[in-house]
Specification:
CATH class of chain B: Mainly Alpha
Number of helices of chain A: 7
Radius of gyration of chain B: 17 Å
Radius of gyration of chain A: 21 Å
Largest interface: A-B, 69 and 58 residues
Number of strands of chain A: 0
Strand content of chain A: under 5%
Helix content of chain B: over 70%
Shape of chain B: elongated
CATH architecture of chain B: Orthogonal Bundle
CATH topology of chain B: Helix Hairpins
Oligomer: heterodimer
Number of helices of chain B: 3
């Protein structure tokens, strides 16, 4: 492997570790500092990918956002009574990660910087073929059902009690 | 040359951590931090795929403005909710947010 791949793996490991610490920290201030580290790590990833302008934009825009979070963190109390439920967190993370990786198994392959032609565009347009229409309809119906269910529960919760 | 699978794995890990944290945590501010984490994951995936397709394309920066706009709107939402909850003495435990009915 080349040097940039090793650098990418190291930066990714640090980014994922600090992303975990966002939820494991006992103080909001520490969680915000970990989030700042995640943003910095993703900006370094952009630099490795050759997107200098995007990395600069990432740092500039999230300085504003993170300063807001820092103000909120300073004003907030500690969260000792509201710590994360670790078994739920670990189970949900593993389930979602497995699902995402299974979904990504059908994604295109190759390295950044190689010539792929129009293969990315052709694979993206294949998602709009007619045989997938039923899945989009089911997804839209499920989304509408969830939204209307929340609305009904909120609207008629007094009748249920 | 970074394989696209590595970038997808990083994006998936960040997104999974963010959504699992939102599902398992109860503090309002930490949940908003989890949403920011999911934004970061989507940004990594977007830039990764744009770089994979064409490293010299300016489309990535243009598309990124949409994500940044949504992230900025989310921070405004956080501030408004935070002020409302502080002003009305509402606990930051989201399991006690029954007073936020419309």
């Amino acid at each position: 492997m080349q040097l940039d791949v090793y650098a990418f793996i190291a930066i990714s490991a640090v980014t994922v570790a600090t992303a975990l610490y966002v939820f494991l920290a006992k103080k909001i201030m520490h969680a915000v500092a970990a989030l700042a580290s995640v943003f910095t790590g993703s900006a370094v990833v952009f630099l490795i990918l050759g997107q200098t302008l995007v990395a600069l934009l990432q740092m500039l825009v999230f300085v504003g956002g993170l300063s807001t979070y820092l103000v909120v963190a300073v004003a907030s109390e500690e969260r000792k009574a509201m710590l994360i439920r670790l078994p739920y967190f670990a189970a949900a993370m593993v389930l979602i990660l497995i699902t995402l990786l299974m979904l990504m198994g059908s994604a295109p392959t190759g390295a950044v910087g190689e010539d792929h032609g129009a293969s990315f565009l052709s694979s993206a347009s294949s998602a709009f073929q007619s045989q997938y229409a039923v899945f989009y309809i089911i997804a839209a119906l499920l989304f509408g059902t969830v939204i209307s269910g929340v609305f009904v529960i909120k609207k008629f919760s007094r009748l249920l009690v | 040359m970074i394989p696209i699978e590595y970038i997808m794995a990083l994006g998936a890990a960040l997104f999974a951590i963010g959504i699992a944290g939102i599902a398992a945590d109860r503090h309002f501010v930490v949940i908003m931090l989890g949403i920011e984490l999911m934004f970061a994951a989507s940004t990594v995936l977007l830039i990764g795929f744009f770089s994979w397709r064409d490293a010299a394309s300016p489309d990535a920066a243009l598309m990124l403005f949409a994500i940044f706009s949504v992230a900025a709107a989310e921070i405004i939402t956080l501030i408004s909710f935070y002020i409302y909850m502080k002003h009305n003495g509402i606990d930051f435990d989201v399991s006690k947010l029954s007073r936020l009915k419309w």
